[in-house]
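Protein Entry — a single chain follows
Next Lines — sequence and tokenised fold
***
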Amino acid sequence: MQIQQQQLSKANQLTAQTSNQLAEVFAALGDAQQAAGHCQKVLESLLSSYSSNSTAVAYQRLKLAQLQGLLGQHSAAQTQTANALRTLQLHSGDAVA
């Protein structure tokens, strides 16, 4: 069972890395919709491996928020930004505010 979990974890990491690269490519091409979709997949992958209060999750939330803002999804972007800043404040104190 532990071997299967390790293999799934490696596959999850590879999927997240691939989705992250695709998000960057689509963002560079100006396709914010596709970039946001891949960015969301990375966030979901991170959330399955890390605490929602991890800095990795927070930085991914900020990436997604930028794309959501470009797409006019301002409420979603504000929620992602607020969650990310709350997490970063936990790790670094008031310096993030």
